Amino acid sequence: MRRTAVIETSTQPSSTAPGNTPILSVQGLRKSYRTRTGDQFVLDDVDLDVATGEFVCLVGPSGAGKTTLLRCMSGLMPPTAGTVQVQGRVVDRPPAEIAVVFQDYSRSLMPWMSVERNVMLPLRSKGMPKTERIATAQAALIAVGLDGTGTKYPWQLSGGMQQRVAIARALAYEPRALLMDEPFASVDAQTRADLEDLVLSVRDAFGMTIVLVTHDIDEAVYLGDRVVVLSGSPTRVREEITVDLGPNRDQLATKALPEFVALRTRVLRLIREANA
Ligand SMILES: Nc1ncnc2c1ncn2[C@@H]1O[C@H](COP(=O)(O)OP(=O)(O)OP(=O)(O)O)[C@@H](O)[C@H]1O
């Protein structure tokens, strides 16, 4: 981790313009769940490449299988058929290069551990000495604007601050890619906007690849270099839309752009059609 990194709202051109090398590659992915009434097919032949440094947002109808896809991509769930590759290696367990942030921060943080210990937790598996773990955790907390909260417990923080802790924990691990499943769904609108900008700045500062699942179309267009629209169940990739809004996004100015409005309308129409 770059410990001296100062994370500010992104006003600089991205140093991590998406390259062409896919860090994540999903090929012919199928997933079915066994239910009492038989197998339920959720994902049906999903193909998706994510380039190094790219920010990809996954949207689709409710229940389409967005979480299922993200879980398969993160190695938390085996596919029924097809493959997920990270840097060319087939994923058969959670890869070291990937960190995941879930919506429900209250369940992902350990309430009996201080904020600092929560952030240090995954670093043990890297065999890092304790002094380095502490320094790395402190740097990650500074990076998400939580300097000075290390000795507090998660339940002493607001929802938005707890989600920042979860993001700090992911950052401290220094993943090549961050997979996020509706990470801002449980916080208020202003905190959500702040966290969106935080994630953009983290992407710029740490050169990270991000895949984010969201229900919020504005959020997808605001954050993404590309929005991947999934079809209704069983799910395929319906359309991939390049978001040509440049690297610098601003909550007010970007969302007022005619291009932004046109993209949002296009994504919304695709999701409505997928629901029909
Ligand atoms: N463990 C499971 N066992 C059986 N069925 C499951 C399981 N997990 C998910 N499903 C089913 O798979 C389908 C897709 O679920 P998933 O959570 O991946 O969709 P989603 O697009 O993320 O949903 P939402 O938009 O509501 O968050 C749903 O019909 C769900 O009921």
Automatic annotation (TrEMBL):
Any Pfam family: ABC_tran
Entry superkingdom: Bacteria
Domain ABC transporter: start-end pairs: 24-257
UniProt KW keywords: ATP-binding, Nucleotide-binding, Transport
GO MF terms held by the record: ATP binding; ATP hydrolysis activity
Listed CDD domains: ABC_NrtD_SsuB_transporters
Protein name stated in the entry: ABC transporter ATP-binding protein
The species this protein was found in: Kribbella qitaiheensis
